[in-house]
Predict the structure.
Amino acid sequence: MKIVQAIKKGDEPFVFQNSNQLKEPLVLVFGNRYMLESEHIFNEVRALFPEGHIVFGTTSGEIIDDKVLEGTVVLTAIEFEKSKILVKRCNVKDYQHDDKKMGTKLAAQFPKEHLKHLFVISEGSSVNGSALIEGIEHLNNNGCGLSGGLCGDDDRFEKTLASYNESPKEGEIVAIGFYGDTLEISSANYGGWTTFGPERIITKSQGNILYELDGKPALDLYKTYLGEKAKELPKSALLYPLSVKTTENSEPLVRTILNIDEVENTMTLAGDIPEGARVQLMMSSVDDIANGAFHAAELAMENRKSSPELALLISCIGRKLVMDQRTEEEIEEVKAVIGDNTVISGFYSYGEMAPFSGQDSCKLHNQTMTLTLFSE
């Protein structure tokens, strides 16, 4: 595996951290939404990698090595020497927001033989990540792994962009299939958030839209907990996500509120919140989040036969807001576990995709650090 990385700031050209001649590389370009809206960005990257498979995604912060950047574009180009990749795309507008069907159609484009892993970079503004994952896994009967994340837009929640081999645009979902018998790919996630306050029952919801808790308007109830911070919604919701437990014995899922509807008095979350589920508010501290990142890295490294050459990190914008000036500490915790020889790239997101520890099926998470580790 050969890897080169570069950083672009403002109108300056990309500055490469290292150099290498790559053949038909996978080129991951994660960056600030305003910069990826530039009409020149695709041609600029294409000129650097004429044979590259170029995948774009907007972020709420860019990760490269042990650094967290803002208002930049980070580029990581990877040549797999013993393996193959296949990249496919789709757009939410072509499926009338039937995200499960969209996921099924997307996954069906990948031949199953020798497919080791799918890594998904999805638009993050309107997609129901739970339904998308359910659709992708609907045809998954060969034990293929699945991980990835939802694109971000800092804490603006205006729009997110992604693309494959074209200029970034709204509504895109890009999936990268990794093929090869020598590939070793592992993924894991962990949060570090704790519940507080009373447990409430979801009495009315539809998909990822929450209407009522304990028979009362959910948004009104949530605002009473936030107090003065309610004026800053939906941004302030990132500091107080919901723990959602669908059954007595299920692992609780963390759900971030992506948007609110003052007219309908509802909240739109990043993934499904079924009626009958029990929810509680959550909060965290800097130390809890850093420790959570360390534990996520430990889980991703469990039972690996070889050291990872590449680590793709997707962490939640909510974690970044809590960490503030200390955000890089969670990346440093990850690096302490996976080692200095692993190339690190990634971004801060509106949602993370990975299985729970010890499980095969993927889930949509919020407020977690998610790692996908690669070696050939």
In short: The helical segments are 33-36, 41-48, 99-107, 129-138, 218-226, 286-301, 317-323, 328-338. The chain has two domains: 2-190+287-375, 194-282.
